[in-house]
Amino acid sequence: MINSIVKGDCLEVLNSIEDNSIDCIFTDVPYKQDFHNRGMSKDRPNHMKIKEYGSDSELDYTAFFNLCISKLKHINFFTFCDKETKFEFIKLAKERDFGYKELCFCKTSPAPFCNNQWLPDVEYGIHIFKDLEVMGSYETKRSFFVMVNFKEPNIDHPTAKKVSVCCQILKNITKEGQLVLDPFSGSGTTAIACSRIKRNFICIEKNEDYYKASCERLKTEQSKKRLF
To answer: Which terminus of the chain is less hemmed in, N or C, by CB atoms within 10 Å?
Structure first.
């Protein structure tokens, strides 16, 4: 499975991976937040796409987190999250006496989903760790990002994160040659980022369309690397 995108349910595939074999889990978990009445009208065309892929009220975060940390050599878990999911993972970290760091991604041109609410101009990330040296430099280890948009352009996926941002975070929490696992691969951004900065990866995606598109995206990325 190393350096490939695997099609399947993340919990089933995770169970097949050897314990204590992964250096870092880097993902974007489905959120439990229902977007209706939180700034995005249910009539907007993108609402159902995001609800279908980016929201999952049935996901047991505790069971998922426990399974993830059983696969890690050391506690080194990062996920992008919304404001509610963030507190779920902070609670899990505190209960286990793990360290945690909140990252903020501030968008200067947020989507106009006002709907009598605050603008959705901030997204979050949570890094959970124990006995981990945060690498990188004074510049790369800043915990806030300011950008026009957090989404990678020209990618047909509602929550595709910028590859450049993922590369910067991964440089701070992993070393070259280490193995990164993404249980919710989506558009394949983790695979692309790892390929660019010389990390190994295992990515898991259950949606057929996103799986095929991300495999093609990775193939294109690897072809460019061979050319240069």
So the answer is: C
